[in-house]
TrEMBL record, chain A:
One of its GO terms (molecular function) is NADH dehydrogenase (ubiquinone) activity. This is NADH dehydrogenase. GO terms for cellular component: plasma membrane. It is a multi-pass membrane protein. Keywords: Cell membrane, Membrane, Transmembrane, Transmembrane helix. Pfam families: Proton_antipo_M. Residues 130-421 form the NADH:quinone oxidoreductase/Mrp antiporter transmembrane domain. The chain crosses the membrane at residues 6-25, 32-53, 78-100, 112-130, 136-154, 166-185, 205-230, 242-262, 274-293, 300-320, 335-356, 377-399, 411-434, 455-480. GO terms for biological process: ATP synthesis coupled electron transport. It is found in: Cell membrane; Membrane. Belongs to the CPA3 antiporters (TC 2.A.63) subunit D family.
UniProtKB/TrEMBL annotation, chain B:
This is Sodium:proton antiporter. It is a multi-pass membrane protein. Keywords: Cell membrane, Membrane, Transmembrane, Transmembrane helix. GO terms for cellular component: plasma membrane. It is found in: Cell membrane. It comes from Ancylobacter defluvii. Coiled coil: none annotated.
TrEMBL record, chain C:
Belongs to the CPA3 antiporters (TC 2.A.63) subunit C family. The keyword Protease does not apply. It comes from Ancylobacter defluvii. InterPro entries: CPA3_antiporter_subunitC (IPR050601), NUOK/Mnh_C1-like (IPR039428). It is a multi-pass membrane protein. This is Na+/H+ antiporter subunit C.
Length: 490, 311, 95
């Protein structure tokens, strides 16, 4: 454990940026106010990753010097550092892509977009490094409110309806989660994960509380069967917002579920909850990959693909049978799937946004001629698709291969079959869009600035680069585990 | 004796909840919600949580009720998500409700006795903070990060509301109430209540460090008075963008973070309150937070700007 | 004992609110039901706090403080939903 203020600033710097946007509204262009805070956020995430890797220990801070169970701590462990880096990467890519065109198009909500983007960043960082069950709740509320507002940004009736549905699902999830937190407090009077790890028992109250929290988080992560809100919401938001929502926002509640079942109450893989979660994930993979195939609009297709790819994350639960799950290949495969899907999906949604801008529509069957007119965007789309299908070389390939190996080792053949089938189905829907775009045609194409296409391609190449990480449990992802309680202040 | 009082509160709460859910008219359900809020605040008094009772009465019942009542008056048609529930769905939902209630009840009864508690731990450091209300200490010291980010949640909601109305005007004045001349009785009431209420709010704020009361309660009271004045046409709604509303919204979190940095310099711990000046620093930060909370609450009820409000 | 009665009341409020949340198709009624569920959950926190009375305090301040934070957050959520509803009820915006 290294004591460091960096995690604190990673949460607070974007909040200061949000305040600065409110203060300077009407005086400076919002993107110019937000830019330095985006740069600071990137710097902080890189520093945290560097410190965690070089010390091979997590960065910890007890706020105000108050130790748990009374006080709150922030802790960037190996997984946390990786996810902060992922968040920063996607945020920078999205920011470049959303940078105001010279004519100032984008409507009056532009200032709101940057404020919400920064708020989202703070919420994500907090969700990835918080250590307290109620602190998670605050992070989730920040996350939901800014995400719902981003969905409504476009102002159309469809967008507002999608935002309302999303909000109601998110609120139902929050209430269930909070109910579980109340039960845990009543049982232990501790909300700190490390503290709970030492005393938690698998008794009915604890299991029921964790079940309530898990179901609430499932609604926020859009795991089948609590997924109904996601496709309209992610398809109605402006493309840069969709990219953040699909790549990052649904990952935060997933990570909290993971931490409940790994950090708080370690369960052997044989018990029911891991099997149930993996079962729901399998249904999501098969069902939503098929539904993605049938979508007429590109953004809806990508949204359904997100639902399927979320399913893959939940496959990891029964694939970590060891006493130290973070040393199993299932853990590495699951986290790698989270990261590679994050990058690939961000690139894909941004590419879809640029295609929409160029053609004025995103109907999958009418993309003919795009390959000739906007090759860079299409290459980015194809590379991102590679990762979703799980073809080499890509992060998605490594992630799915690890999950497959773990499934075979664990003798869970049904999981292995689902992983393979999901990949084949993904190939169908990605190639359907690519095939349409590669056809001959001479569509009227509006110009899209080259730097924006470049940003999308760069993101997609990052997803490709992930394909070169070694095929084994990753030491970085085990840093900081098992959780240790902070005994004293330095 | 106490059991009787608890039962006397439990019955109206459950009946009120049933009425709110089952009432045919939305308007009736809304008035039921106001009455329900009142009994809920009393239940909090019975649970010996005066701080929560004040917050519940002001925000949970008062401000939420006002918000929904105003919404109902402004809605020009109902917004539905899906079809009216058929008998099968009602039966399934009823069974689910019963099941959830039974499970929660069983869990509550299964909680350990004596219950684990942090009460003693919250009291011990109070002298170093110069305050004597442990709830204030939890909010401003032990779990300061939660409180700081909760204000951020309010700011996000304010931005969200503006975004949702952005088509119609990004910065402007919201229409406080369905356009109509305020009744003389309302104006009289506002002239009477606003000054008296402000005095009480200052008192609440000041006693917050020692007795129940404090930042939130005082802020919500000021916000409610402000809304009353707006409804009576005595005060304008705040502009949604720029100028002093922006300053008021940003000052709370920024002051909190600045105090955290001062704590870092003085004690080596971010968000720690340096002992000799803890109390005055806490008061200053709470004042700044109160400014943000008041403006945010008023803006949340007032909603996005309207085109007919002019620019 | 009186805390237990109010705790069971909280559980009932959650159940009743859940029923309303599922059964009512209109968004405003769903919002009201959501606030009922929230009230029930907060009440359960209050009972948890009351049961943990110690050190001369009538209740554990930590869950009480959490409820204060939670009430404010729930209000902000209601306000967001109300704005969406008001916008959606405006006539003449059908595509």
């Amino acid at each position: 454990m290294t004591v460091s203020l960096l995690p604190v600033w990673a949460v607070l710097a974007p909040v200061i940026g949000l305040c600065a946007l409110l203060l300077l509204e009407g005086r400076l262009r919002p993107e110019w106010v937000a830019a330095p805070f985006i740069a600071i956020g990137l710097y902080l995430s890189i520093s945290i990753a560097y410190e965690v890797i070089s010390h091979e220990a997590s960065l910890v801070y007890a706020l105000g010097g108050w130790l748990p169970p009374l006080g709150l701590t922030l802790r960037a462990d190996g997984v946390g550092a990786v996810l902060l880096a992922l968040t920063a990467l996607v945020m920078v890519g999205v920011s470049i892509c959303a940078w105001a065109p010279a004519d100032g198009a984008g409507g009056r909500g532009r200032s709101g977009f940057w404020a919400l983007l920064l708020a989202l960043w703070s919420a994500l960082n907090l969700a990835f490094i918080a250590q307290d069950l109620f602190n998670f709740f605050v992070a989730l509320e920040m996350l939901s409110f800014s995400a719902v507002a981003l969905v409504a940004l476009d102002g159309s009736r469809d967008a507002l309806t999608a935002a309302l549905r999303y909000l109601l699902f998110a609120l139902a999830g929050s209430v269930l989660y909070l109910l579980g937190v109340g039960m845990i407090y009543g049982r232990y009077a501790v909300l700190d994960l490390a503290g709970l790890r030492e005393i938690a028992q698998a008794d009915p109250v604890t299991l029921a509380a964790l079940a309530l929290m898990t179901v609430g988080l499932m609604a926020k992560a859009a795991l089948f069967p609590l997924h109904l809100w996601l496709p309209p919401a992610h398809a109605s938001a402006p493309a840069p917002a969709s990219a953040v929502l699909s790549a990052l926002v649904v990952k935060a509640p997933f990570l909290i579920i993971l931490r409940l079942w790994v950090d708080l109450l370690p369960l052997s893989a044989a018990t029911a909850p891991p099997q149930i979660l993996a079962g729901l994930g399998s249904v999501a993979i098969l069902l939503f990959s098929i539904l993605a195939l049938r979508q007429q609009r590109l953004k809806l297709m990508i949204a359904y693909s997100t639902l399927a790819q979320i399913g893959y994350l939940f496959l990891m639960f029964p694939l970590m049978p060891g006493p130290a799950p973070w040393l199993d290949i299932g853990w590495t495969g699951g986290i790698l799937q989270l990261v590679s899907h994050g990058i690939a999906k961000a690139a894909m949604f941004l590419a879809a946004g640029l295609i929409y801008e160029a053609l004025g529509h995103d109907r999958v069957s009418e993309l003919a001629g795009l390959a000739r007119r906007q090759p860079m965007t299409l290459v980015a789309f194809a590379i991102a698709g590679l990762s979703l299908m799980g073809l080499p070389p890509s992060g998605g390939f490594i992630a799915k291969l690890l999950l497959l190996t773990a499934a075979v080792e664990a003798g869970a053949w049904w999981i292995a079959i689902v992983v393979l089938a999901g990949g084949i189905l993904a190939a169908f829907y990605v190639f359907r869009a690519l095939g349409s775009a590669l056809a001959e045609g001479t569509p009227a194409v509006a110009p899209v600035a080259l730097y924006r296409q470049g940003a999308v391609l760069a993101l997609a190449l990052c997803a490709l680069a992930l394909g070169f990480v070694p095929l084994r449990p990753f030491a970085l992802l085990a840093i900081g585990r098992p959780l240790e309680a902070m005994e004293a202040l330095p | 004796m106490n059991e009787l009082l608890a039962l006397a509160l439990a019955f109206p709460l459950v009946l009120g909840a049933l009425f709110i859910v089952l009432a045919a008219s939305t308007r009736a359900a809304l008035f039921g919600f106001f009455a329900f809020g009142l009994f809920l605040a009393l239940a909090w008094v019975e649970l010996e949580a005066i701080d929560v009772a004040l917050t519940e009465a002001a925000i949970g019942g008062g401000a939420t009720g006002l918000l929904l009542l105003r919404l109902n008056a402004r809605m020009r048609r109902t917004v539905s998500l899906g079809q009216p529930a058929g008998p099968q769905l009602r039966i399934v939902a009823g069974l689910l409700a019963v099941l959830v209630t039974l499970v929660l009840g069983a869990l509550l009864l299964a909680l350990p006795d004596p219950a684990p508690s942090l009460a003693a731990a919250t009291v011990e450091p109070l002298p170093t903070l110069g305050i004597s209300n442990p709830i204030t200490a939890v909010l401003i010291a032990y779990r300061a990060l939660d409180t700081l980010l909760e204000i951020a949640v309010l700011l996000i909601a304010v931005v969200g509301i503006r975004v949702m109305g952005a088509e119609r005007g990004w910065a402007g004045r919201p229409v406080p109430w369905p356009a109509a001349e305020p009744s003389p009785a309302l104006v009289f009431l506002a002239r009477l209540l606003v000054p008296a209420g402000l005095v009480f709010a200052v008192y609440l704020f000041w006693v917050g460090a020692d007795a129940p009361g404090g930042k939130f309660q005082a802020s919500t009271l000021v916000a409610a008075l402000w809304l009353l004045a707006i409804m009576a046409g005595l005060a304008p709604a705040p502009r949604t963008g720029g100028g002093w509303t922006g300053i008021a919204l940003a000052v709370g979190p920024l002051a909190f973070i600045a105090a955290g940095a001062i704590g870092l310099a003085a004690t080596g711990s971010f968000l720690a309150w340096p002992e000799p000046v803890a109390k005055p620093m806490i008061v200053v930060v709470e004042l700044a937070l109160a400014a943000s909370v008041v403006v945010a609450l008023v803006m949340l009820v007032a909603g996005p700007p309207e085109p007919e409000a002019g620019r | 004992m009186s805390a237990t009665i109010l705790g069971l009341t909280g559980a009932l409020l959650v159940g009743i609110g859940l029923f309303g949340l599922i059964v009512h198709p209109t968004a405003l009624r769903k919002l009201l039901a959501f606030n009922l569920v929230g009230a029930g959950v907060f009440l359960i926190f209050g009972v948890v706090a009351r049961r943990a009375a110690a050190a001369g305090l009538p209740g554990d301040p930590v869950p009480q403080a959490i409820v204060i934070t939670g009430i404010v957050v729930a209000f902000a959520a209601t306000a967001l939903a109300a704005t969406l509803l008001a916008r959606l009820s405006e006539p003449g915006e059908q595509p």
